[in-house]
Design brief:
This protein is mainly alpha-helical. The chain has 14 helices and no strands.
C-alpha cells in the first residue's frame, strides 16, 4: 500500500471507474457540478459583501462546508463577531460527528483518514450509504468528496471574480441550481410509499424548526422522518 497521496488518488480513480456503474458516476458528476455552481454564488456574495477574493477561496479549501461558510460570511458581513461566526459554523458542522461514526471502514486509516474526514460532507456520505457493498461505498465516497474538493474552491474563485464586477449576484439565480439537481436525483425514490411518507414527515419537521434553529440544523432534524420507515419495517417483521 503506497504512502504517496498522489499515487493513492490516481489508483482510486482507476478503481472507481471499474467499481461504479455509469448511472452512479453520472449522478456524482451532476452533484459536483451543482456544488461548483453554488460555489459561484458563494464567492460572488462574499466579494460583493466586501471580503477580499482570497478569503472565500481559502475557506472553501480549508473548511469545505458550504452551509458553515455561507453562515460565517453572512454573520461577519452583517457586523457580527468573527468568533460568533466560527462558533455558529462549528455548531452547524456538528452533524459530521454521526457521519464519521457511520463510515469508519470507508475513511481508512492514517493520513487517508485525515483526508477522508476533510472531504466528508452531506453529499459524499449520502452517496456512500446508498451503495450496497464496501468497495462501492468507498468508490462513491472518495469520488464525491474529492470532486467537491475541486469544484467548490474553483467555483468560489470564479464567483469571487464575478463579484468584483457584478453587484447584484442574486439576479443570476445561482442558488437555485443545487436544490434543483438534488430534487432531480431523489424524485425516482418517491415511487416507494414508505420513502414518500418519510420524506414528507422529515420535511414537515425541518420546516417547523427553521424559524428557531440556525441554518443546517433543521436538515438534521429532518432525519427523524426515517423513524417512520424503521417503525413500519419493524412492524412488518
Amino acid at each position: 500500500m503506497t504512502n504517496d497521496p498522489m499515487v493513492f488518488i490516481l489508483m482510486n480513480v482507476q478503481s472507481i471507474c471499474r467499481t461504479l456503474d455509469r448511472a452512479v458516476l453520472r449522478d456524482l458528476a451532476l452533484v459536483c457540478l451543482a456544488v461548483g455552481v453554488i460555489g459561484l454564488s458563494y464567492g460572488a456574495i462574499a466579494v460583493a459583501s466586501g471580503f477580499p477574493l482570497w478569503l472565500p477561496v481559502v475557506l472553501a479549501l480549508t473548511v469545505l462546508a458550504a452551509s458553515s461558510e455561507f453562515l460565517f460570511i453572512g454573520i461577519v458581513a452583517a457586523g457580527g463577531s468573527p468568533v460568533a461566526a466560527v462558533l455558529a459554523g462549528l455548531l452547524v458542522n456538528a452533524r459530521h460527528l454521526p457521519f464519521g461514526l457511520a463510515l469508519p471502514d470507508v475513511l481508512g486509516s492514517g493520513w487517508r483518514r485525515a483526508l477522508g474526514t476533510h472531504v466528508m460532507n452531506d453529499e459524499s456520505v449520502v452517496f456512500a450509504l446508498a451503495q450496497q457493498d464496501l468497495p462501492r461505498k468507498k468508490a462513491a465516497y472518495w469520488t464525491c468528496g474529492l470532486g467537491i474538493l475541486v469544484c467548490w474552491p474553483l467555483g468560489a474563485f470564479a464567483g469571487g471574480a464575478i463579484g468584483t464586477v457584478i453587484d447584484d449576484t442574486d439576479a443570476l439565480g445561482l442558488d437555485a441550481m443545487f436544490p434543483a439537481v438534488l430534487l432531480a436525483l431523489i424524485v425516482p425514490a418517491f415511487r416507494d410509499r414508505d420513502k414518500r411518507r418519510a420524506a414528507l414527515a422529515g420535511s414537515a419537521v425541518a420546516l417547523a424548526a427553521v424559524p428557531f434553529l440556525p441554518a443546517g440544523l433543521p436538515v438534521l432534524l429532518a432525519l427523524t422522518g426515517l423513524s417512520l420507515t424503521a417503525v413500519r419495517e419493524k412492524t412488518r417483521a
